Amino acid sequence: MARNWRTGFPKLAFTVPWNLMLITMGAMIFSFGAKTVAIPQEFISGGVTGTGLILYYVLGLLPPGVWYLILNVPIFILGWIYVSRRFFFYSLYGTVLTSLFMDLIPWVLVIEDALLSALTAGAIMGAGAGIALRSLGSLGGLDIISVYLNQRFNIGIGKFSFAFNMVLFSGSLFFIGLEQVLYSVFLVFVNAMVMDYFLGLFNQRKMVLIVSEKPDELAKSILNTINRGSTFIHGRGAYTGKRKKILLTVVNSMQLKRLEEIIFTIDPNAFTIEENTLNVIGKGFSQRKVY
C-alpha cells in the first residue's frame, strides 16, 4: 500500500484537479494576506500586486483586484509566447481567482504593530504564492516572468521577485512615505523566503554516503526495510590503501533516522556523511516539472 501511494503521488501532481486545487488554495491564502493585512496598513506587497496597490493608493479609481487584472494583460502575452499554453491557462485561472478574492474578502486582521503586520502579511502571501507555484501554473503577475527566467536562466523565483521589488520600492518613495516603504521591504523579504521554502518543501532529500565493511548487507537491508535503492561507488582508503565499496543512497527526512538505525545496527563502526539536496528528480521521487 505504501509503495503504491509513493508511486501514484507523482502522477497525481500532474492531474488537472490537483493543479486547480493548489492554485485555488494559493489564490485564497495570498488574497487573504493582501486584503486583511497589507492593504489596511497601506503596504506595497511587491510585483504586479504592489504596482496595482500603488495605483490604488494614489488614484483610487478602481479596486486593487481590478488593477491586478489589468496589469496582468501584457504579462500574459509574454506567458502565451514563451512559456506554454498549459501554464498560461492555469495562470489565467489563478489570476482571475486572486482578483476576485482580493475584492470579495471582507475581513481586516487588526494588528497594531506595523512591523508585525508586515511580517505576517509577507508570511501569508508567500505561503499562498508558494502553494500556487507548486502547481503547473501560478497566480499571474510577476510569477509568469519569474518562471520564464527560472526555466531559461535558472534564476531563483523568490530572488528575482525580491530584486524586482527593490526597483519598485525606489520609485514608490515618490508616492508613499518612507516608513511604509521600509515596512514593505520586510514584507517582501519574508514573502520571498516563505515562497522559496514552500517551493522546495517536498523536494528536499538527504543524500547519504556510507563507508562500511558490510556494504552489500547494508544495501540489501536498506532496500528491504525502507524501499530505497543504493549505488556502490568504488573507492580506496587513503590510510590503509584498501579498496572499499562506498554506498550512496537518497532518502527523505522521515526515513533518515530509520536509515541510521539500519546502518549502525549492522555495522556499529560505519562512517556516514549526510547532505541536504536542493532537489531530487527521478523514479521514486519527483518528476521533472515542465510548465
TrEMBL record:
Ranges that cross the membrane: 12-31, 65-83, 90-109, 115-136, 157-176, 182-202
Topological relation to the membrane, as annotated: Multi-pass membrane protein
Keywords, alphabetical: Cell membrane, Membrane, Transmembrane, Transmembrane helix
Signal peptide range: none
Domain DUF2179: 228-282
A Pfam family reported for this protein in Swiss-Prot or TrEMBL: DUF2179
CDD domains: YitT_C
Location in the cell: Cell membrane
A single Gene Ontology CC term: plasma membrane
Organism superkingdom: Bacteria
Matches recorded under InterPro entries: DUF2179, N-reg_PII/ATP_PRibTrfase_C, UPF0750_membrane, YitT
Protein's recorded name: Uncharacterized membrane-anchored protein YitT, contains DUF161 and DUF2179 domains
UniProt organism field: Desulfonatronum thiosulfatophilum
